[in-house]
Amino acid sequence: MSDAQTxxxxxxxxxxxxxxxxxxxxxxxxxxxxxRRQLEALAGPRLTRAALQQAGTNxxxxxxxxxxxxxxxxxxxxxxxDCVAAYAAxxxxxxxxxxxxxxxxRVVVQAxxxxxxxxxxxxxxxxxxxxxxYSAGVLVGFINALTDRRDIVCVERTCQAAGxxxxxxxxxxxxxxxxxxxxxxxxDPYLSQxxxxxxLLFDQMPMGIAILDRECxxxxxxxxxxxxxxxxxxxxxEQVTPxxxxxxxxxxxxxxxxxxxxxxxxxxTVRQVAFPLEIxxxxxxxxxxxxxxxxxxxxxxxxxxxxxxxxxxxxxxxxQTITAIANNFINMPPDEIDQGIQDALRAIGASTGADxxxxxxxxxxxxxxxxxxEWCANDVNPQIEWLQALPVAALAxxxxxxxxxxxxxxxxxxxxxPAAAAERQEFLRxxxxxxxxxxxxxxxxxxxxxxxxxxxxxxxxTAVDISLLQIVGEVFVNALEHKRSRAPLESAYQxxxxxxxxxxLALSQRADEVQTLFNVQQAINSRLDxxxxxxxxxxEARRLTHTAMAAVYxxxxxxxxxxVVSGQVDPALIGYRLPLDGSAAGQALRQKQPILVTATGExxxxxxxxxxxxxxxTFIIVPLVSGQTAVGAITVANKQDDTLxxxxxxxxxxxxxxxxxxxENSRLYREEKVRYQESERRRQVAESLRDILVxxxxxxxxxxxxxxxxxxxxxxxxxxxxALYILHEASQxxxxxxxxxxxxxxxxxxxxxxxxxxxxxxxxxxxxxxVPDVRQLDIRTVRSVREESLAAVRAVFVEESHLTALAAAIxxxxxxxxxxxxxxxxxxxxxxxxxxxxxxxxxxxxxxATMFADQAxxxxxxxxxxxxxxxxxxxxxxxxxxxxxxxxVTQTLFSTSLIADVLPRIWERDPALGQAKLAELRELTRxxxxxxxxxxxxxRPATLTESSLEELLQQLAAAVIGRSRLQVRVAxxxxxxxxxxxxxxxxxxxxxxxxxxxxxxxxxxxxxxMSLHYLPECVELAVQDNGRGFDPTAxxxxxxxxxxxRERAAKMxxxxxxxxxxxxxxxxxxxxxxxxxxxS
Amino acid sequence: xxxxxxLLVLLADDQANVRNALRLLLEQEPDVEIIGExxxxxxxxxxxxxxxxxxxxxxxELPGLPSRYLLRLLRDERPSLHIIAMSSRPxxxxxxxxxxxxxxxxxxxxxxxxxxxxGRLQTGAEPx
Lengths: 1080, 128
Fold this sequence. Notes:
The complex is a heterodimer. Chain A is α+β, with helices and mostly antiparallel strands. Chain A is about 50% helix and about 20% strand. Helices cover about 40% and strands about 20% of the residues of chain B. The longest helix of chain B is centred in the C-terminal third of the chain and has 13 residues. The radius of gyration of chain B is 13 Å and the shape is globular. In chain B, about 45% of the residues are buried. Classes of the chains: A alpha+beta, B alpha/beta. At the A-B interface, helix 19, helix 25 and helix 26 of A face helix 1, helix 3 and helix 5 of B.
């Protein structure tokens, strides 16, 4: 929507839409409708119709003048028909020429949905008279232009807006139509044709209209404008003539007016609402539309249309004051209402120009009245002091009117009638010249009145003022009644609030106790250190009982030990021991009952020493009872007597139960923790041992192994330093081979003679040595032993710095555990655990340390054995075969013998089971046979190439079936095009053997398939199981076997493929050329 | 008549065949009940913590942990447990004796020897 449309389609009451915007309006339905309604409102329906018809005539004639010459038609009827058709085509409705008797005959035009009739329908209205004035004018205009006749009129015989089926227009000479005014095409030669309409309206308009030239001089103006000038301007009517500068009309307001006209001359149509002017001290407000007057492309002047909005604005301002007052009273708290009324009286009094404003209320008896609020202008004397408890009868005349709900408006007190003589006398006494009093009614009863006095000069109030002030009176009375009705409610509420506050106080104290217990409970649940919880309980107990001191005792045998103190107690008393006998606490514990002790200074079974130490005059002691056992006590105490009572005992008893739970929890937790630590330690020991075993089974170097053993030992025995010494047999000295802990590196260089120092003696004697605390040994002995040791060291080794380091290292330890490394009754070295603090060594620790020592000895021995590799290899191989024989065949045979032994008995009882067992026996025997053959192959490896690979795999399978429950299948696909080379055959056999062993040992499988697949270029061996699988990327116990298999595969230039995942079984495969040779 | 107590027995051997054969044999005995089997050391340790066994037939070469260490853990866990070591290796007898195992069974031994070892426990002839 353009600005013009927005502006025009939203007319407001009192807004004039007129002037140069007119032609725009006529093309816009909404705006046209608005204009029509406004014109009707302003100028009446008849004049509106005339104006619209004139506009139509001018429009129609202009169109026909320009349209006709362009057409080729020659006859006027044809031209008229075309014009009507063009009008219809332009969207003004379905117009057509139904009858043409030309010249001077009847011309009839029929129309449906004529835009004017259509507008009535759109707005849901109907017209009591034909409504299509503009269209009628247009038709006249056509005739005016086509025939050059000006005496033609158009009568709308029927109209859709009036309920007819169609609109019928009859055009005829004025002489044939009675009482129909001629409206003819009538362009203004001077100010363009637009002014024709204005001419019609000019004189009757209730707005001031001024037409100015570009220099803002008055060209034309209407009588209304002249009247405005007379009312507000200082100029006389004679001075207002064409040619006068418009600014002369409103002196003092040139600047804003000049700015306005400049905008209009720039082409803008400006609408203003409540434009303020101040001329000679009088303020006025104006609604105005100021529009450019166009002539063709040029702006030739200004149309200024204005209405006096002063009265409306002033009324609005007063209304706003009232509204603000009324709004102010909405939700006003009762205690603010008096002040609110006072403020309102001041505002209203000032804005209405009164000297006094006040409120009277009638008393309950109806016979007296009092002024309850009063406002006075400056220099006006207040009267409220004397206006209390006045007899109503004394001013009977005025009060009678007020009580009948009549407004009392007395513009001149002096003119009061004789009946009001009392009033006149009283008012004059107060200096009142004019008076306005409005009854204030509440629920149809007059309860008082709102009054205004004029003291300094006479004053009369306008009807608007009076009606507005009546509203104020209503607002006041409502507020006052509201206040009155609220008062008892308010006091009841306050009383309730008071009671709630008191109750809340009592409850909050109880709530505090509950919250404290809750906090204690939470602390118990979240903290495992009982001391912290007990401290909290002691603190809270003291706080809740408002006592100076609190303490918790825990029982140890026949004594109570102060564990926690709170408040004005010396913390040094923690640890103080109190005998159960001869103390109130002991008595409470034995009786399992709280005890309240008062006046401790006098007598009673109290512990004098403690009572005097803390200066307690009175105390309560509550035993802590867990199950059937009293485990301690909690106490609160004060230095003033008679300050403790039953309520404190109750609180302390609650706190005691919290303390018991805390202690119980802590005990349970400690037990649980010990249990957990024990099992965790066992697990660690087992894992550590397994780790070492795994390492022992691998070919790790001895230093690595020993390092690993020392690391594990360090972790499990919590030592500060662990050192593993190796004995050099030739020199009979010990050197550190592996070390954990903080020792200078030079220490490794020291060669310690056997027999010297703790570890030297351990190795010499081949016995462990346990030194829980070197300080408890004879000092002299220790020192002499140390000196002796150092002297011996010096004899062997002379590096001074190393000796210093060793001396320093020895000095710092307070406990030592030394173990010899012994294998086959030969000392190989020692293992020493050093501790900076004295400590006891449990049997378990000693045996654990011994295990590590054994492991280390084994590792050293193994390593030494490995040094004699060939010899050992032969021995080992023989041992291995023997072991295999025992592990495999012997066990299978053992099983068969056991089964064979019971078989007869089983058979006797259950032949079917016997059959099954016999089959099992057969299977086992075959397995044993296969295993024997497998072992024989090992004894004579050359035989590995004498059988085919399939046969060898079958034999492997049978051996495994014999000793385990595993189902082993051998699958062969394809045929060997060439025989496998011996190396390939042995390698593949070994891989299959290893893979199968791994499955048996680790996979927990139920089925295994060994498949041999001969392909044109290569042969593939795969071992697949349905076991638990493993993560091929993770280091595991399998890696050893996998490593060997990989090595074998690599030697054949083949790659070992491992496919597995946890829970998914595994598949190990290798692909190689049949003639691959061992590249080693 | 001899006083016989009912024996609750655990079997520990990595070979299912051996366990099955032992089970078959012992199940024929009226006062013996096999309450669990283990195939390795960790399985056995778990079993011992869970089942109140009187006797353990222990393969001396049980994988997972050398038996002399395993014994310490077992005794810690259940000091009253009678342990009968079994092995197919001749040298194991000496090792078991050094580790304090009173009863050793060779896997080459005939079934009656196995039953006799248990029988001694039932009559209380075997010292704990």
